[in-house]
Amino acid sequence: MKSIIQILLVISLSLLSAFSIYAEEKISGAEVINNNCARCHNARAVHEFSIPEWKVIMPHMREKAHLTGKETQAVLEFLELTSQSVPLAQKIAPEKIIAPDGKQLFTQFGCQGCHSLKGDGGTVGPALDETIKNKGIGFFIKKLQNPQFNNSSSPMPKMPLNEQQIKAIAEYIKS
Amino acid sequence: MLKLLPFAIATAVASGQLLANEQQNNSRFALAGYGDVKYEDSKLMDTSAFSARFVPIFLFSLSDKMHIEAETEISVDENGETEIELEYADIHYFLSDTTTFTAGKFLLPFGQYGPNQHPSWINRSAFSPGIYGGLGGHGGYQPMQGLLPVMSDIGVGIQHIIPLGKNQKIFFDVYMTNGLAAEAPHDDEEDAHDDEPVLDEHEEEVVDEHAEEEEEHEEVDAHAWELPELAFEATSADNNSNKAFGGRIAYAFLPGIEVGASYYTAKYDEKLGFTATGFDINWIGNHYIVRGEFIKTETDSFEEDEHEENKVITFDRNGWYLQATFMAGKMFNVLQGTDFVVEYAETNKINEAERWAYGINYWLDSRAVIKATYEDTTVQDGEDDKRFAIQYSYGF
């Protein structure tokens, strides 16, 4: 009996520890979408609804998909970020978005939430390691500017990025 | 006084603008949902017909803590009558970051098909899985007699989530609802049931051939007993003082796998009960999805023994399905948007049947799909069926 209690105690502490670390982490909205939405359905395109509508829809999905409040908020922040026009996004976070730092942009827009790179990342979208090598930089730029140009069923959002920033991300992916 | 007028007007205009901006950024209402149009050809029913449904979901945010949702299914039946069914209408109160209280009419969290996967733009087949077949208004009549409908009932529930890092979670759902009742007997139906079961929406005719007497452990010959029909349709009344209880516990290793165990128990009469136990899996890979459920049901019934005394016997049934989807478009560019689906289902111990289904889906975009499914059902003591359907489903 004593050993069972000890085992349960260790398991409980491990769970609490794991939870508390996660609670402090910055949650990626893109990663939440990749991990949860695709469990039941294709990821929906951001532009299907306005942000005020997403704010009403997300509490519904919170209960359906067993999301925490923080995860729900992270998704909303991601949707808000990706639904901005390029100039507005730069106005919101000029330091981060204007700087053509591919790695920073790659992280900021949560690319790895849906795409894997070097074996790490989501699975909603294809792995990015060989994309530019196989399809060329022209395809990559066009895909980010108009994600549905080659696949009408693609749920990828159009990111508020200019061509210079897209090229910076491409450089980071190639490196 | 007049000096204050411009100031008052300016204040009113500024307030109006602030309110307008606030309303622009925060809405209280959103409309979502799904619908479908289906052409179905059945050998057994000797019919071929088009049908259509529209299933709007009305969403309201009362505050950060309170959220209201309601789903109605609007369709036309074979007599041309418009049917409107309230699928759910409930309010969520977010007690904390991880705990949600729900009250109202809601989809019971039993397995994954019922609460989450049954909408036609989410279900990868044009038909319901065999073990849900023909029940609950989500599949129409099918020769494979389902074990459960998609259950929706009125009551209260609690959901709790334990995140274990960013890739693992444990889900708990528990609920208490009005529960089910015995279906009122219909003279015309009784005759029909002698030969072959006729299924109505939200009801299950329980006809088990494998059962044991509760006390004497004597095997029951189903054909010798009068068998109960159960009405799962939610009502704002309860025929007894007992409530239905149930819940689901699930483990998710995100984004790849979710496995769960469900339980539901209710008294449909003062002394007679119904219990369902289920296990489910949802396994998602880069190019494939595998969904499956196993369900076991136990239904009590009064029967007279040779001394003309009532005793309780329990009828067991079980069944399972497994549906595999290969998302070919993710692997081959030339097949962009194309899925191939294969599904197997079987029911055991009563009305034994097995069903194979094969399908091909084409996604027009991420929320609109055309599904073509062929299914072949073999019924042990009844007529086999082959049917084909093309369904155009959309989420909105």
Write the layout of secondary structure elements.
The complex is a heterodimer of chains A (175) and B (396).
Chain A (H helix, E strand, L loop, with lengths): L1 H23 L4 H8 L14 H14 L4 H14 L3 H7 L1 H5 L3 H7 L2 H4 L1 E2 L2 E2 L9 H15 L17 H12 L1
Antiparallel strand pairs in A: 1-2
Chain B lengths: L3 H22 L3 E14 L4 E15 L4 E11 L5 E13 L4 E9 L5 H5 L34 E12 L4 E10 L3 E2 L4 H9 L7 E3 L5 E3 L5 E2 L8 E3 L12 E10 L3 E11 L5 E12 L3 E17 L5 E18 L10 E11 L4 E13 L2 E12 L5 E11 L1
Antiparallel strand pairs in B: 1-2, 1-21, 2-3, 3-4, 4-5, 5-6, 6-7, 7-13, 8-12, 9-12, 10-11, 10-17, 13-14, 14-15, 15-16, 16-17, 17-18, 18-19, 19-20, 20-21
Q: What labels describe this entry?
A:
heterodimer, A: 175 residues, Cytochrome Bc1 Complex, Chain D, domain 2, two-stranded antiparallel sheet, 10 helices, globular, B: 396 residues, mainly beta, Porin, 16-stranded antiparallel beta barrel, three-stranded antiparallel beta sheet, 3 helices, 21 strands
How many domains of chain B? The number is 1
Radius of gyration of chain A, CA atoms, in whole angstroms: 19 Å
Going across the biggest sheet of chain B, name each strand in turn: 1-2-3-4-5-6-7-13-14-15-16-17-18-19-20-21
Provide the CATH superfamily of chain B.
Porin
Oligomer state of the chains in this structure:
heterodimer
Would you identify the CATH architecture of chain B?
Answer: Beta Barrel
The rounded Rg of chain B comes to 24 Å
Order of helices and strands of chain A: HHHHHHHHEEHH
User: Got a strand count of chain A?
Assistant: 2
Separation of the first and last Cα atoms of chain A: 56 Å
The structural class of chain B is: mainly beta
Q: How many domains, in number, for the residues of chain A?
A: 1
CATH hierarchy, class of chain A: Mainly Alpha
Task: Give the helix level of chain A as a range of percent.
Answer: 55-70%
CATH architecture of chain A: Orthogonal Bundle
Helix vs. strand class of chain A: mainly alpha
